[in-house]
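FAQ
Q: What does a multi-component entry look like?
A: The components come first, one per line:
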Amino acid sequence: MNLKELSSHLGLSQTTVSRALNGYPEVNEATRRRVREAAATHGYRPSTRAKGLATGRSFTIGHIIPVSTKHELVNPIFAEILAGASEAYENAGYGLMLSMVSDQDEERTYRDLAARGTVDGVIVHGPKLSDARIKLLQDLNLPFVVHGRSSRLVQDYNWVDVNNRSAFNRATGFLLDLGHRRIALLNGFETMDFAMRRREGYSSALKERGLSSDPTIIAHDEMTESFGYDATKYMLDADQPPTAFLVSSIISAMGVRRAIEETGRQLGKETSVVVFDDDLSYFRNAGDIPLFTAVRSSVRTGGRIAAEMLLEIIRDRSIEPKQTLLEAQLTVGMSTGPALN
Amino acid sequence: MNLKELSSHLGLSQTTVSRALNGYPEVNEATRRRVREAAATHGYRPSTRAKGLATGRSFTIGHIIPVSTKHELVNPIFAEILAGASEAYENAGYGLMLSMVSDQDEERTYRDLAARGTVDGVIVHGPKLSDARIKLLQDLNLPFVVHGRSSRLVQDYNWVDVNNRSAFNRATGFLLDLGHRRIALLNGFETMDFAMRRREGYSSALKERGLSSDPTIIAHDEMTESFGYDATKYMLDADQPPTAFLVSSIISAMGVRRAIEETGRQLGKETSVVVFDDDLSYFRNAGDIPLFTAVRSSVRTGGRIAAEMLLEIIRDRSIEPKQTLLEAQLTVGMSTGPALN
DNA sequence: TTGAAAGCGATACCAA
DNA sequence: TTGGTATCGCTTTCAA
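Then the predicted structure of the entire assembly, as tokens:
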């Protein structure tokens, strides 16, 4: 059933039916009711394509997720971000167009989306310290919100980020308060903005206590279980092994735990672990006693906020660039205890 | 730059330019070259909406992921399926429309997609034993492929599935060959098709050796880390504890490992674990020595195959329902050893 | 081999 | 308060 059929069925013009359904004020209330009822009983829904062509909008938001061909894995955190964003689009009558592309195809993808008008705006995922996508999107005049930040850029742009710096500053401070002095940092790739901000938070906390950071107990890599395991094993075997580990991902933290136990140490006793974690409930204990001590931030909420910001920008493209900084929460779990020696 | 502008720039009609770019044979080769070059230099891309309106297609495939509000978590495996599917769409010039909806909104979502013509077809995720979506989609006449199966239905429909039954039959047989007689099964929800097929494979392997399955060492639940931990702890504390665990998810297997170690047992010695795993590299060891013994299946490949099947169906809607059954691979890792008792 | 014009299904402007 | 009609940017049929 399309508009033409519905309106001829009602004995009205397409104009009136369209106006009635889109809430225009100049329609007689009785007419509007009749139209609404007929639309409901016939299950009429306006064609997305036709509506889009007429209005010049697509009612679709693009999410472009970089998939590195080198490492062949998708960070499961993306699913949570998408779930949050999807919620926002659902409420606003928008759709979510997902593109998972290798880094070298990314520019072409953005240009394509812009030129074909496939999307009304995009969310930028996984920003690097100095991310070329931001300038590209500004040049393309395609509305966007960065989920994260790109700290080395001077441009003003829309972003939603969790306060990684403060989160890691507080987590490090927490471990220092417990008496730990050798705190290892297992972090994501150095090119990633979030990783550098976490490292800054870690370093600043040490500095505040007059301690300097030791590069031999800092590692940057892809945050797999085996990275956690290998790095921990290596550091624990060295002279002056760390008594605590600050880990950028729950998956790596599983490897850290394995290595700690394999070397005969006890988690939360001889060696402590604090992890940066999403609110994923996968790794929580029953009865809500958390296994890991974690700096928690709901990535799903972050995704929803970024999406809502983008919709607002699309609605009124004249508004000034907006930024939202979310704070993470520290939850103390069994994986952390005071430094022993 | 749109078709009108490009064609007037070239001094040709829109018809000819359209034909040249879409590979119609009746175009002079010299003309075609001229058109292609001009299109490239001006970065011309046909508007998706206009093309869709003219052809009656959307060049978009929908993926509807059920998000249960009760459990509030998104299975990370979905990200891998989407990555595989995305690859197929990329090559075919299609887009991927993602909808994450709570189970109760699912029917409305499907009806909406069909009525508005937002998508040309959908992939059904996470099928239940008897899944209502299949009949709904048949009624809506919307092309679809199920990623998995719905075994209690008699209808004929398109699906791509991994052979869960054979995978768990072989895994159980492998443990039996090692001498294990008390093998626990930690599985997904009983309503899920994959979970019941895995259970059947497990039971049939026991039966083949004249053994019967013991319900006290079979658990069905959401496959979190804590489920793995709690169930394992409980079973190991009981009389006649299992000497091996067959686990439906790597995440739960992390909890299984934790419980095994906490009770003073050694993984791969006193107690063995075999896990059903995607080809996710998160949990592999460096040097490719696998930590877990796993029945591996590449979910990414499964997603790609399902997507390719759907595109083929859309291209030729008259073809008979198709089915593809993928076999999983057994990889022996450190988590498994002979039964000691 | 090329072009004119109709049509896809909505919205929105201008009249009545 | 309602309707006629142009328009969005393509594809496709029919004619030349």
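Q: Is there any commentary attached?
A: Sometimes. For this entry: Chain B touches chain A through 61 residues (CB under 8 Å).
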